[in-house]
Write a structure and sequence with these properties.
alpha/beta; 326 residues; 9 helices; nine-stranded mixed β-sheet; 39% helix; single chain; 17% strand; 2 domains
Length: 326
């Protein structure tokens, strides 16, 4: 098997059906063998029926896998273990993909030159940004799972996003699976399980390729176009940053990298707060408010880890160095 598409899902049977139909319409050379492995992360809606229907309609291209342990990283790692392909592509249950998506995303990975690849993820075609949302800034649409680095293919120096990325399976055998203390799960919306894995590869000097022609469109439900959603997302993004730092050495239970952060927090947070309060346009004010929330999320996670190390706080999630095997 050349390619396995791993798609994890939880209680989104309607959007899942649209996602699977768009993946089923992929245009690939007849010489390429490919499959879609749908990992059902303990759904209680009609997810199983939706997937089984595609298994019958497209024999040989779709498989169903049930993973009862809740949490996206657990579902991703289960899919990696069961995948038959030499190249593993990843997308989500709330997207649609272009017919050439899979070919364009994986074309460069059949040799050993590249460890992985990422494409462009755009908001759905009908997306209209609210008036309070600034479109300026590299991660302005991060809470909408967007990723767009232009129209020129080349080498990536930053991680792609999990709804539009692919890696040679050998990368997981060499560097481990997705971290289970990252990724959405019951009681936590902390993400970055996808970017942390890709950053692990970049730190090891593996090469990642950017393929702008591999296009995914991400749904933008109304509940994500709320200021409260953006603020919560940026706060959790800050917390995830600290958890990523936790893979390095610790001092008194705190990741050593955090002490560098302590040196600048006295200026970073006040500066962002100042920019938030003095920006002229409402869009820029909200932009800087979001980035102030990143800094507060970092501070909170450092404090939480310190209390946990001192035995003053409990956390049922795995520690910051936990990397689930495959």
């Amino acid at each position: 098997m050349d390619i396995t598409v791993i798609l994890c899902t939880y209680n989104r049977c309607e959007s899942l059906a649209r996602a699977l139909d768009s993946v089923a319409a992929q245009i690939l050379p007849e010489s390429i063998e490919w499959e879609v492995l749908v990992t059902d992360n303990n759904s209680n809606d009609q997810t199983r029926d939706v997937v089984k229907d595609r298994c019958h309609r497209y024999p040989g291209h779709f498989r169903y896998l049930f993973e009862s342990q809740q949490g996206k990283s657990h579902a991703l790692n289960a899919g990696i273990r069961e995948a038959r392909g030499d190249i593993l592509a990843f997308t989500d249950d709330d997207v649609t993909v272009e017919p050439t998506w899979l070919h364009d995303l994986t074309a460069a990975l059949h040799t050993g030159e590249w460890g992985g690849a990422g494409g462009r993820t755009l908001p759905e075609r009908t997306f209209l940004p609210p008036r309070w949302l600034s479109l300026e800034g590299r991660y302005a649409l991060g809470p909408l799972a967007a990723f767009d680095r232009g129209l020129v293919a080349g080498e990536l120096t930053e991680p792609p996003v999990g709804n539009n990325m692919a890696f040679r399976k050998q990368m997981f055998e060499k560097y481990g699976g997705f971290r289970t203390d990252l990724g959405p799960r019951p009681g936590s919306e902390i993400r970055n399980e996808d970017t942390e894995f890709a950053r692990r590869l970049l730190d090891a000097r593996e090469r990642l390729r950017y393929e702008p022609s591999a296009v995914v469109y991400h749904a933008v439900p109304d509940d994500r176009l709320q200021r409260s959603y953006f603020l919560a997302w940026y706060f959790d993004y800050g917390r995830a940053n600290v958890r990523e730092w936790g893979r390095g050495p610790h001092i008194l239970g705190i990741p050593r990298r955090c002490f560098t952060f302590f040196k600048i927090i006295a200026t970073v947070l006040p500066l962002r707060a100042l920019l938030w309060m003095t920006a002229r346009s409402p869009q820029r004010r909200f932009f800087w408010k979001c980035w102030a929330r990143v800094a507060t999320g970092q501070v909170w996670e450092i404090y939480r880890q310190w209390r946990k190390a001192k035995g003053k706080a409990s956390d049922s999630t795995p520690g910051p160095d936990r990397v689930s095997g495959i």
